[in-house]
Write a structure and sequence with these properties.
2 domains; Rossmann fold; alpha/beta; 10 helices; 6 strands
């Protein structure tokens, strides 16, 4: 085995075994426990409110392109979009998905079409449901602000990577009286969402969204395996730091193998 790769291989093998174990447990009906996430539970409430008022739901799956460093956040946002689209189809609620990246637009459009097809409402799909607004940051924000004010939207859901426009969008949603749910793992923007939104998904909660909302046992099993992997990494970091503090380099030497 290549020197310097033994520990990496061992950790990978252990993580893979844990993932397979939890996936098999989930298939057998023993779904791992996952705590409640209020921001995700509130999505149904937000869509229900829009249905009662007869006003649209605005959904934004992040602002950056799918090929950037924020791609994971955008994919998480797109996965939750699928769930939102199913609910708007089920309740005949108007949906407006605002897109800021050209390579995200066809994906979002396909997700919405598929969601409506699965609900047997493909005839309800409209071109304005998924709109490419602009790939320029503040032009995109201005277009969304205009949409919120023009259509007096009832609910606004923002999940993905956001930057300086986050506070503008959250504040505009509050001004029109919309229920606002926002989520991002970009730490600099989380405080703005917490301050201005009704519900906030913090950090990795957005990545759990797809599994949580779909109640998919396999995805939840995969999520449990990831949590165990993170716990193991945290223990190794803390233990290694303490050992190194007292001059013991055994953990460092082992990681170098």
């Amino acid at each position: 085995m290549v020197a310097g790769k033994q520990t990496t291989f061992l950790c990978f093998a252990l993580f893979l075994a844990t993932t397979i174990y939890y996936m098999r447990m989930a298939k057998a009906g023993k779904t791992p426990y996952i705590r409640r996430i209020p921001g995700l539970d509130a999505i149904e409430e937000a869509i229900g409110r829009a249905t009662e008022l007869g006003r649209p739901v605005v959904y934004v799956p992040g602002r950056t392109e799918i090929s950037t460093a924020g791609a994971a956040q955008n994919i998480a946002g797109l996965e939750i979009l699928g769930h939102v689209a199913k609910m708007t189809a089920r309740y005949d609620t108007e949906l407006r998905a605002g897109i800021a990246a050209a390579n995200v637009y066809p994906i979002a459009e396909a997700i919405v079409n598929q969601s409506y097809l699965e609900e047997g409402k493909v005839d309800r799909v409209k071109p304005e449901m998924v709109q490419f607004l602009s790939n320029e940051q503040f032009a995109f924000a201005a277009a969304l602000l205009s949409m919120m004010n023009r259509e007096k939207v009832a609910s606004v859901i923002l999940v993905g990577e956001f930057q300086a426009e986050s506070m503008m969008l959250a504040e505009a949603a509050a001004q029109v009286g919309a229920v606002t749910i926002a989520g991002t793992s970009r730490t600099a923007q989380i405080p703005f969402f917490v301050a201005a939104c009704d519900y906030t998904l913090i950090g990795e909660e957005i990545f759990a969204g797809g599994a949580y909302l779909a109640k998919d046992a396999i995805k939840i099993g995969n999520l449990a395996a990831q949590d165990w992997g993170k716990l193991a990494a945290m223990i190794m970091i803390i233990l290694g730091s303490l050992m190194a503090t007292f001059g013991n380099t055994a953990m460092i030497d082992w990681l170098k193998k």
